[in-house]
Write a structure and sequence with these properties.
heterotrimer, A mainly alpha (about 300), B alpha/beta (about 450), C mainly alpha (about 290), A: about 300 residues, mainly alpha, 14 helices, globular, C: about 290 residues, MetI-like fold, 13 helices
C-alpha cells in the first residue's frame, strides 16, 4: 500500500490527492462488526478446512507406504509418523540436480521474461506507433494457445541449434512464452504513469532509457513482484518443456523428477507426494515473500487489464 | 502522489548514474548469475569431449527398483567394456510422447526400449531404426533368445530389429486366501467351469472379477483371450492386420461372452474408475477374487509384501471352443537402436550384453516380475508363480501380442476406446463394434 | 525528437520481438505447415494433402465433442474460480483475524505439482473409499458409490471442480488487490446514506471491481486454455473422450494416433478460435482504457 496504490484506483484519477494514507487504507471501515466478524471467521475456517483437504491428502500420501494406499487407508490418520518417503525422496541420487536445475531455469527465465516484458510494455504504452496496436494484439495472442501446439517445431528448432539436453531450451522457451503476459501487465502498468511526466523528463534532457529506469520502474516494483510470483510459480511447476528438451537425468527439473518416479508397472505415490511437498516450498516462499507487493501490485497495474 | 513521480523524474534527470531500486538491481544480479551458472552447467560441449566412449539410452523402466537395477547393470557393462551408458529413464506414458517428439525431430537416443509387435513395426516403417542382423548373429543371440518370443518379436520385414529384454504373460491372478476361504481348490480349465467358479463366488458374496479400464488397456486381455479361445489365433491375426472386420460374427461372439459375464454381475462395478493397480488392490484386499492381468502384477504385489503362492496365484484363461489352438497373450519389452546412432558399435554391444548375460537377465526378471527372454536363466531364480507362468508359455501353441501391440497403433486407439466404452454400456456392444470398425477401417485404408 | 523516439522504439522492441518471433511465431507457422500434410511423426517422408485434414476435422464427431467440452470448460473455469475468488476476497477484505493465514491457505494449491494434485483428486473421487463418497454417506446415510470420474456425464465437471480449487487463490489475490484500492470514504458515504450491506457490496464494491474482474477473467481464460496437466492426469480425456478438450484431443490425435498432420490442423483451428476470443477481450480492454484514461 504505497501511495502509488491509490494513484490508479478507478475513481481517483481526477482526485489524485486522496486522503487515504499508506498506513491505514482500510482500517476505518467495518469496525462495529464483531457479530459479522464471528460469522465470517466461522465461514472462513470451514472453507479453509475444505480447501486444505486435498493438500492434507498430499501430506497423508507422503506419510504412507504404497501398501497403505493400496489397501484403501489413505484418508485414515496415520498412527505413527513415518518419514521414510521423505528420506527416499531426498536420498534419490538425482534430486539435488533436479532442484538446482529447476532454479537455474526458473530464475533467469522469470527475470528474462519480465525484462523483455518491461521493454515491450514501455514502447506499447509510451511510444505507440502506427500498427503498434496490431503488434500488441499479436503478442498478447501468444498467451492464449496451449503450448502443445508448437512442441514438435520447437524441438526441431533446438535440435538444429544443438541445444537439446541443456537447460537453454527451457530458459528460452519460458522467456518467449512469458513475453505476452509480461508485456500486457507492464503496458497496463506504465499506462498509469502520466504522459506529461515523461514529456517533462524528456524535455529536461533525459533519454527514454532514463525515463524507463528512473521514473517508470521505481514505481513499478509491485508489478514486478506480481509478475515475479506468477512467472516463478508457472515456470517452476512446468513439466512439459523439460520432458521434451532434456534427456540426461542430471539436466532434468523437479517436476519431471516427480513424474519419473513412477515406472511402467510400478507406483510410487508416497515418494511422489513427499517430493512434491518439498518442491512446493520455493513457490510458497516466493508467494509469502512477495505477498505484500503482490496485493499492492495488482492494485496498481494489473487491475487495469 | 504526483510529487513522487516528479521527484523521481527530476532525480532521473539530475543524477548521472541511473538510480535503479535495490530489488530490481538484485533481480538483475540474480538474472546474470543464473545465466552464467546455466551456461556453465548446461554446456554440453565439455562432457562430450571428455568421454567419447558412451551410449545414450532411454527407457520406461522407471521406479526405484527398475532404476537402481539398471544402474547396476550399466555399471557392470562399463566395467567390462569401458563404455559409459548415459541413462535417461522416463515415466511410461511420458515416454511415448518423448520418443515420438525425438523421432519427429530426428534426435533419437542410441538405444531405447520399445514394445515388440505393431508398435515396433510402426517405427521401423518410419525408417528410423537400424537393422541388427549382423550383430544378432555375431553375438549368437539365436542360441540365447527363447523361441517363443524370438521371431515374432524381433523380425520385421525380414530383418532383425528388436532385442528382447523380457516378456510377460497374462493370466487370471487371484487372491489365494479368498479362494481358500471360499472353498475353491480346483481351478477351471474350461468355460463352464469358469462360469461355475464365478457363480460360486458370487453366491458367497464375493465379487468374482476386478477390472480397471480407466486407462483402457487392461480390458484388452479379456477381448484377446475371448477372441483367441473362440475364433482362434489365425482369425485374430487377420483382424489385427485389417483383413477382417470388427462387425464379423466371430468378434460379436467374443463380445457376447464378455457381456454375459458383465450381465451376470461377475465384474466389480465402476471399471472405468479404476486403473490396473486399483483392480489389483481390490484383489489384494479381498474385495474381489481375481483379475486378468500380466505377470507384472507379481512385481507390484511382491512390492507390497504379498507372497507368491501363499497370497496370490494364477490359473490360465480357460478353453472355450474345442479344437482351437492354445494361445497365450502378453507383451515383449525390447531394445531398438536408432538408425543414425553415432555410437552404433557400442549400442550393439550394449543390447547384446543386456540380452545375453544370464545373470543380468535373471536379476532384471526378478525386479520387474517379468519372464526373461534368455533361455539360460536359471529357472530356480523365479518365484513358484513365475515358474508356472513360464510353463504356461512353454505349453502354448502360440504366443500372441496383446491387442495394443498386435494391431497398428492408430487403429488400436479405437479398440482401446471400445473396451472402456463396453464396460460402461455393454448392451450397446454392436454399436461399439461398428464404431471401432469405422475408425480402424479409416486407418487401414489410409495406409 | 521523432527520430529519437524511433530509435528507442526499435532498440527497446528488438529483443522482445526477436525472441517472440523466433521461438513462438516461427514454430507456429511450422505447425500451420504440418496441418496440410499427412505426417505421422515417425516417418521421414510425408505428403501434402491439401485441406483434407481440415475437411476431416469438420466432420469429426470427436472434434465436435471436444469443442463443446472446451466451451463448457472455459465458461466454467472462468465463472467458478472468479466467483469463488471474489467471495473469498470479500470475506477476507474485512478486519477478520488471521486474514494473512487464510490467504496463504487459499493460495497454497497453486504451489503444488499438478501430477500429485491430480492423483489426490482421483482419490477424493474414488468410488469405494474416496473422501467425497464417504462424506456423502456420512450425511445421507446411504452408500452412494458413485464413480465421479468414470461416468461420461460427470467426468468433465469433476475435473473442473478440482481445477477451480487450484485456481481460486489466484483470482482471490487479484480481487483483494482491487478491493484494497476502493477508497474507504465511498463505502462510508454509502453507509451514511443508509445503504444496506448487500447494497453497498452490489453498487459500490462490485461496480468498482470491474477492472479487477477483467484481469481475473483474462488469467482464467489463459490458464484454462492451457489447462492440460490436471485433465491429463485425472481422466486423460476419458472415459472414452467424454472429457476431451481441444488441447487434449489435439494431443491424443498427434501423440497416440501418431497423426501429427491432423493434430496440427486441430491446433490451427484452436488457434483461430482463441484469436477471436482475444479480439473480444482486447476490445474490452480498450473500452476500459478509454473509461479510465
Amino acid at each position: 500500500m504505497t501511495d502509488g496504490a491509490t494513484a490508479t484506483t478507478p475513481t481517483t484519477p481526477t482526485t489524485p490527492a486522496t486522503p487515504a494514507t499508506p498506513a491505514t487504507p482500510a482500517t476505518p471501515r467495518r469496525r462495529r462488526l464483531s457479530g459479522w466478524t464471528g460469522v465470517l471467521l466461522v465461514c472462513l475456517t470451514v472453507l479453509a478446512l475444505l480447501f486444505l483437504t486435498p493438500t492434507v491428502g498430499v501430506i497423508l500420501s507422503a506419510l504412507k507406504s504404497t501398501r497403505d494406499i493400496a489397501f484403501g487407508t489413505l484418508w485414515a490418520i496415520p498412527r505413527t509418523l513415518d518419514l521414510s518417503n521423505f528420506a527416499v525422496a531426498l536420498a534419490h541420487p538425482s534430486v539435488k540436480f533436479y532442484f538446482v536445475n529447476t532454479f537455474l531455469v526458473t530464475a533467469p527465465a522469470t527475470a528474462g521474461s519480465i525484462t523483455l516484458g518491461i521493454l515491450a510494455g514501455y514502447v506499447f504504452s509510451k511510444l505507440p506507433f502506427r500498427g503498434s496496436e496490431i503488434l500488441f494484439l499479436v503478442i498478447v495472442s501468444g498467451m492464449f494457445f496451449p503450448p502443445q501446439i508448437i512442441l514438435i517445431p520447437l524441438f526441431r528448432l533446438f535440435n538444429r541449434l544443438g541445444l537439446l539436453d541443456t537447460l537453454w531450451p527451457m530458459i528460452i522457451v519460458h522467456i518467449a512464452m512469458g513475453i505476452p503476459i509480461c508485456t500486457l501487465l507492464m503496458r497496463n502498468f506504465f499506462a498509469t504513469v502520466p504522459a506529461a511526466l515523461r514529456e517533462a523528463a524528456i524535455v529536461e534532457g533525459a533519454s527514454e532509457w532514463r525515463v524507463l529506469t528512473g521514473v517508470a520502474l521505481p514505481v513499478s516494483l509491485p508489478a514486478l513482484a506480481v509478475l515475479g510470483t506468477l512467472q516463478f510459480t508457472w515456470i517452476w511447476n512446468d513439466f512439459l518443456w523439460p520432458l521434451i528438451f532434456t534427456q540426461s537425468d542430471n539436466k532434468r527439473t523437479i517436476m519431471l523428477g516427480i513424474v519419473s518416479l513412477r515406472g511402467q508397472y510400478t507406483v510410487a505415490w508416497g515418494v511422489q507426494g513427499a517430493l512434491s511437498l518439498l518442491a512446493s516450498l520455493p513457490t510458497l516462499l516466493v508467494f509469502l515473500f512477495f505477498q505484500r507487493y503482490f496485493i499492492a501490485g495488482m492494485t496498481m497495474g494489473a487491475v487495469k487489464g | 502522489m504526483y510529487h513522487s513521480f516528479l521527484f523521481a523524474a527530476r532525480r532521473a534527470c539530475s543524477t548521472r548514474g541511473t538510480r535503479v531500486p535495490t530489488a530490481i538491481r538484485a533481480g538483475g544480479v540474480i538474472l546474470a548469475l543464473g545465466l552464467i551458472a546455466s551456461l556453465a552447467w548446461a554446456s554440453p560441449a565439455g562432457e562430450a569431449a571428455m568421454d567419447s566412449q558412451e551410449v545414450t539410452i532411454t527407457h520406461y523402466f522407471g521406479g526405484d527398483l527398475g532404476r537402481a537395477g539398471l544402474e547396476e547393470i550399466f555399471g557392470t557393462f562399463h566395467d567390462q567394456t569401458g563404455v559409459t551408458v548415459v541413462d535417461s529413464p522416463i515415466g511410461h506414458e511420458d515416454f511415448k510422447d518423448g520418443i515420438l517428439v525425438r523421432a519427429a525431430g530426428g534426435n533419437l537416443p542410441d538405444v531405447f526400449s520399445y514394445w515388440a509387435g505393431a508398435r515396433t513395426q510402426f517405427v521401423v516403417d518410419g525408417g528410423n531404426i537400424a537393422a541388427i542382423d549382423d550383430a544378432w548373429s555375431a553375438n549368437g543371440l539365436d542360441a540365447v533368445i527363447a523361441t517363443s518370443v524370438a521371431d515374432g518379436a524381433t523380425m520385421y520385414d525380414g530383418s532383425r530389429y528388436l532385442v528382447p529384454f523380457g516378456y510377460h504373460y497374462a493370466g487370471m491372478f487371484y487372491n489365494a486366501k479368498v479362494m481358500a476361504a471360499a472353498g475353491v481348490t480346483e481351478f477351471p480349465s474350461d468355460w463352464d467351469g469358469f462360469l461355475a467358479l464365478c457363480e460360486n463366488l458370487k453366491a458367497q458374496g464375493i465379487i468374482p472379477i476386478a477390472l480397471g479400464t480407466k486407462n483402457r488397456w487392461p480390458g484388452q486381455f479379456w477381448f484377446d483371450y475371448l477372441l483367441l479361445r473362440t475364433a482362434g489365433p489365425d482369425y485374430r491375426a487377420a483382424l489385427m492386420a485389417g483383413d477382417a472386420s470388427y462387425t464379423d460374427p466371430e468378434v460379436q461372439r467374443a463380445m457376447e461372452l464378455w457381456k454375459e459375464l458383465v450381465d451376470a454381475g461377475y465384474f466389480a462395478p465402476n471399471a472405468n474408475a479404476d486403473e490396473w493397480t486399483d483392480a489389483s488392490d481390490k484383489v489384494a484386499r479381498g474385495d474381489a477374487a481375481m483379475t486378468l492381468m500380466g505377470t507384472w502384477i507379481t512385481g507390484y504385489w511382491n512390492g507390497q509384501d504379498l507372497m507368491a503362492g501363499d497370497d496370490y496365484d494364477f490359473f490360465e484363461f480357460p478353453a472355450i471352443d474345442a479344437g482351437v489352438p492354445n494361445a497365450v497373450v502378453g507383451p515383449v519389452d525390447g531394445w531398438l537402436i536408432s538408425a543414425n546412432s553415432p555410437n552404433r558399435a557400442n549400442a550393439e554391444a550394449l543390447v547384446s550384453f543386456l540380452a545375453s548375460d544370464a545373470e543380468v537377465q535373471a536379476k532384471w526378471a526378478q525386479i520387474q516380475g517379468a519372464l526373461s527372454a534368455n533361455v539360460n536363466v536359471d529357472v530356480s531364480t523365479y518365484t513358484p508363480v513365475m515358474q508356472r507362468a513360464l510353463e504356461a508359455v512353454g505349453n502354448a501353441d502360440t504366443f500372441a501380442f496383446n491387442y495394443d501391440l498386435a494391431t497398428t497403433p492408430p487403429a488400436a486407439e479405437f479398440g482401446l476406446d471400445m473396451f472402456s466404452r463396453f464396460m460402461d454400456s455393454p448392451d450397446d456392444y454392436m454399436q461399439h463394434l461398428a464404431d471401432t470398425e469405422e475408425g480402424a477401417r479409416g486407418v487401414f485404408d489410409s495406409q | 525528437m521523432k527520430q529519437k523516439e524511433r530509435f528507442w522504439r526499435i532498440a527497446l522492441l528488438f529483443l522482445p520481438l526477436a525472441v517472440f518471433g523466433v521461438f513462438v511465431v516461427w514454430p507456429l507457422l511450422d505447425t500451420f505447415y504440418y496441418s496440410f500434410t499427412n505426417w505421422n511423426g515417425f516417418s521421414r517422408d510425408y505428403r501434402f494433402v491439401g485441406l483434407d485434414n481440415f475437411a476431416g476435422v469438420v466432420t469429426d464427431r470427436l472434434f465436435t465433442n471436444a469443442t463443446v467440452n472446451t466451451l463448457i470448460w472455459t465458461a466454467l473455469a472462468i465463472v467458478l474460480p472468479t466467483a469463488g475468488g471474489l467471495t473469498l476476497a470479500l470475506m477476507l477484505d474485512t478486519q477478520v483475524p488471521g486474514a494473512k493465514a487464510f490467504k496463504s491457505v487459499f493460495y497454497l494449491p497453486i504451489c503444488l505439482a499438478a501430477v500429485v494434485v491430480g492423483q489426490i483428486w482421483i482419490w477424493i473421487y474414488q468410488p469405494d473409499w474416496g473422501l467425497l463418497n464417504a462424506a456423502i454417506t456420512a450425511v445421507t446415510g446411504s452408500p452412494p458409490a458413485f464413480a465421479w470420474l468414470a461416468e461420461p456425464e460427470s467426468a468433465l465437471y469433476s475435473v473442473i471442480v478440482a481445477w477451480s480449487w487450484q485456481q481460486m487463490g489466484l483470482a482471490m489475490v487479484i480481487f483483494l488487490a482491487g478491493l484494497t484500492s476502493i477508497p474507504t470514504y465511498l463505502l462510508e458515504a454509502a453507509e451514511i446514506e443508509g445503504a444496506s450491506r448487500g447494497q453497498r457490496i452490489r453498487h459500490v464494491v462490485l461496480a468498482l471491481l470491474r477492472p479487477a474482474t477483467v484481469v481475473a477473467v483474462a488469467l482464467s481464460v489463459i490458464n484454462s486454455l492451457k489447462a492440460f496437466d490436471i485433465l491429463f492426469i485425472m481422466t486423460g480425456g476419458g472415459p472414452f473422450h467424454s472429457s476431451d478438450t481441444l488441447a487434449m484431443y489435439m494431443y491424443s490425435e498427434s501423440f497416440k494416433k501418431y497423426r501429427i498432420g491432423y493434430g496440427s490442423s486441430i491446433s490451427v483451428i484452436l488457434f483461430l478460435m482463441t484469436l477471436s476470443v482475444i479480439t473480444v477481450y482486447f476490445r474490452q480492454l480498450k473500452k476500459l482504457d478509454e473509461l479510465y484514461d
